Amino acid sequence: MFLLLIFLFLYIFYSNYQTTALLSKYIISDGKNIAWEAGNYQGIFISGIFILAIFATGQSFLDLREKKAARQYLLLPASHLEKYLVQFLGRFLLPLMIYPILFWLASVLSVGIFKLSLLLFENKAIDFPEAAPFFQLFSLPSEQPTIIYWILWSIFLLIPSLMFLGGIIFGKLNFVLMPLSVLLFSGLMALSFLGLSWILQLDSIILGEQMKFEVLNFDKSEIFPGIPLLLLVIIVLFWIAILLSYVVSYYRLTEKEA
Amino acid sequence: MISIQNLSFSYPKKDSLFHELNWECSDGSIIGLLGKNGAGKSTFLRLLSGLIFPKNGEVKVGLQNPRDRQPDFLKDIFLIPDELAIPIHFKVSDYTKMMAPFYPQFNFVRFEMLLKEFEIEENAKLGDFSFGQQKKVVLAFGLSTNCKLLLFDEPTNGLDIPSKSTFRKAVAANLGDQQTLIIATHLVKDVENLIDRVVILGDGKVKLDQNLLALSDQLNFGYAIEMPETAIYSEKGGVGLHFIQTRQENQNQSQVNLELLFNAVVSGAISAQTFLNQNQTTS
Question: Within an 8 Å CB–CB cutoff, is residue B70 touching chain A?
């Protein structure tokens, strides 16, 4: 259902966008080519991962949400590990593996339908829009430092991992409570960062008539060449959180009562 | 064998439900678990199945700790809760195909036979059934699993009168010597002729745990216009009184009136001590 919506969304989006582009090119003739390009897919693709994390991965351990179903599920003659792996595969790994493939197929189909409709209704054969190049969905502009890749990958993995954990902790309110928890935690991190700036340099934050708001620079204090200490700490924290989310959800399952 | 040692349990923000409860039970009995509302009958079954964990003490079923919920333990235990959770979009036959492989000793022939006895259509959808019919499917399934420990919570709740009789017959005919069935119920009459042991819970403990043969051996259940002098407990019934008295050697054995016994135990007129005293007197 979710993927169908993605497909529809892409299709409608292309149709409107490209129709506008064609109109501007062939009717208004202002010379601007705002045609859809391969690189434009990435934003939607990444947004899709977060939506997928909330509405698919976040639905982990669905049977444990209701007491009656939870009793049946917990008494099913299988080990905790087997029950856990089924959830992990079905709610985490499989959706994240299938999503890029379906996204790519949806883009190819959308583009195909769009081109065909133009050919049929306007008798125009065009080269654009482009379908999503599969591997480009995962790539970043090459000029970015390596640490940015690490941060982005850790975020991509952290969000679904936390949503997977949230399924067994927050139950049906997971889609609200886990994002809220992440926001709260991020807020606390930001505040502690401000606090740290204030401790190190007392006049960095002055509120009042002379409002001054200076924080420590993320890029400074490089622990290795090109690797700032603060970013390294954040990456380490993120990866620990990713690993812990699986460990905690497993032990939460073993300790679950109904 | 089930062994419970010094079990204490309470729900969060509630008073203690069980305190230092001890109980043992060997294999191969049909036990009636009785108690007032809120005495902890369902909780007791959930503790035995490992759905909830004791705050203190130890529960053992065979060599296993239910808390671990090991597959070897789970495939030998079947709990029928009072509130069922079954896949309503499934046909009975599909439900069986899906669930039976989890129970290695599952007897398909018996299951089909029990469905016929309960007048349940195998190709019908579970969602089209009434609560009572769904319960019959699960009862038939439970009795076909051949699990060593069967835990039925209010099994006759929702069954019509003929089905209650069928249930009693099915249990009597299909339970193996090594199988233990614990029936938690407040519908005492439904299990009166079925159980061979009665356990009464109250005040966080096992108030009475007696074999029905021993009960009819030691107590006399009768009905009279006036209360006999030797009566331990009595209550009004029609124009006379139902009473319990200590059975004399020359008296014939009477059928145990579970409802009367339950009321006597709950009121405190009869306790485990009554039987201890009696045994000491006779010896």
Answer: yes
Report ipTM for this prediction.
Answer: 0.90
Same domain (yes/no): B222, B168:
no
Nearest CB neighbour to B51, from listed A79, A82, A257: A257
Higher-pLDDT residue of B172 and A218 is B172
Residue whose C-alpha is closest to residue A6's, from A56, A44, A50: A44
CA distance A53 to chain B (A): 26
pLDDT at A23 over 50: no
Top-confidence residue, B251 or A163: A163
For residue B74, which residues of chain A lie inside 8 Å, CB to CB? 75-78
Helix axes A146-169, A229-254, angle to 10 degrees: 20
pTM over 0.80? The answer is: yes
Domain encompassing residue B262: 210-282
- Contact partners, residue A216, CB within 8 Å, separation at least 6: A193, A196, A197, A200, A201, A204, A230
Which residue among B139, B169, B203 closes a domain?
A: B203
> What are the tens digits of pLDDT across the range B106-145?
999 999 999 999 999 999 999 999 999 999 999 999 999 9
B33/B185 Cα distance (integer angstroms)? 6
pLDDT tens digits, A239-255: 999 999 999 999 999 99
Gap between the Cα atoms of B23 and B206, Å rounded = 7
- The tally of domains found in chain A comes to 1
Contacts A78 to B, Cβ<8 Å: 71, 74, 102
Is the per-residue pLDDT at A103 higher than 60?
yes
Residues B199 and B266 in one domain: no
Give the residue from A100, A13, A86, A12 showing the smallest Cα distance to A49: A100
| A258 shares contact with chain B (CB less than 8 Å) | yes
CB A67 within 8 A of CB A258: yes
